[in-house]
Amino acid sequence: MSVYSQVYEGKAKIIYRTDNPQVLLADFKDDATAFNAQKRGSIINKGKINCSISSHLFQQLEKIGIKTHYIDTPQPHQMRIKAVKIVPVEVVVRNIAAGSLCQQTGLPLGTVLKQPLVELYYKNDQLGDPLLTRDRLFLLELATPEQVDTINHLALQVNEFLRGFWQQCGITLVDFKLEFGLDSQQQIILADEISPDTCRLWDTAEADPDRRVMDKDRFRRDLGNVENAYQEVLQRVLQAVNGKT
């Protein structure tokens, strides 16, 4: 596979063209950002860890019929992916109150929601990725009503699978972010990544509100041991996946 020019560089990945116009190469970076890139740093081996976790989770999701952009991993920090047109909407699924949900609603941290909450945000760094109403989403023509319904349905399916999977890993899935794209057949498929960068993960066996954190909140909140937490998540994922084979 020949790699050509850079298509896009985001906070966590660089995307390159390949000799196949339907295939792109995602290079996962060790860079870490928080608060809309106002805080910056680096996490050792984050690129390799997130690439590996995402690859395994995408493959597991494919097995239950959820289409993703994943093709394979030619290098530990690289993922070959299907070329998609990203829908400019970030989808957040919440199972437990944390982060901005607590700040904006007053719900106590750790409140278990009666049912999963799906929120849609405008994927626009300049505007601070604001929370969208359906009417605003349609006003901005970010997606069609049918696409939004599909995205909501897929997000809940992904949540149902991930909650069970992380539970097998001894991890509680608090909330997570997804992105979707349109493939060459104009079908909505899962894109981006699923990792400690995009999921809020708590060690189920740990009661302490700081020690239980196994995700990027360790970086956001200066809790330390960020690399160890990411590595522990990867090890538990590998154990769960190998246990299924």
Question: How would you describe this protein?
Answer:
It is a single chain. This protein has 245 residues and is an alpha+beta fold. The chain is built from 6 helices and 13 strands. The strands form 3 sheets. Strands 8, 9, 10, 11, 12 and 13 form a 6-stranded antiparallel β-sheet that branches. A 5-stranded antiparallel β-sheet has the order 1-2-3-7-6, with helices on one face. A two-stranded antiparallel sheet has the order 4-5. Strand 11 and strand 12 form a beta hairpin. The two termini are 29 Å apart. The mean pLDDT is 95.
Task: Describe the SSE topology.
Elements: E1 3-9, E2 13-18, E3 23-28, E4 31-34, E5 39-42, H1 46-63, E6 70-75, E7 78-82, E8 85-86, E9 89-96, H2 100-105, E10 112-122, H3 134-139, H4 145-168, E11 171-182, E12 188-191, E13 199-203, H5 217-220, H6 226-244
Antiparallel strand pairs: 1-2, 2-3, 3-7, 4-5, 6-7, 8-11, 9-10, 9-11, 11-12, 11-13
Helix pairs in contact: 1-6
Query: Secondary-structure element order, as H and E?
Result: EEEEEHEEEEHEHHEEEHH
Strand content: 25-35%
Low-pLDDT runs: none
Topology, number of strands: 13
Counted by DSSP, the helix tally is 6
Q: Given the C-alpha coordinates, what overall shape results?
A: globular
- Helix coverage percent: 25-40%
Quick one: biggest sheet?
6 strands, antiparallel
**What is the gyration radius calculated from CA atoms?**
17 Å
Query: Based on helices, strands and strand pairing, what is the structural class?
Result: alpha+beta
Distance between the termini: 29 Å
The chain-level mean pLDDT equals 95
Quaternary organisation of the protein chains:
single chain
Catalytic activity: 5-amino-1-(5-phospho-D-ribosyl)imidazole-4-carboxylate + L-aspartate + ATP = (2S)-2-[5-amino-1-(5-phospho-beta-D-ribosyl)imidazole-4-carboxamido]succinate + ADP + phosphate + 2 H(+)
Protein name: Phosphoribosylaminoimidazole-succinocarboxamide synthase
GO molecular function: ATP binding; phosphoribosylaminoimidazolesuccinocarboxamide synthase activity
Domain SAICAR synthetase/ADE2 N-terminal: 7-236
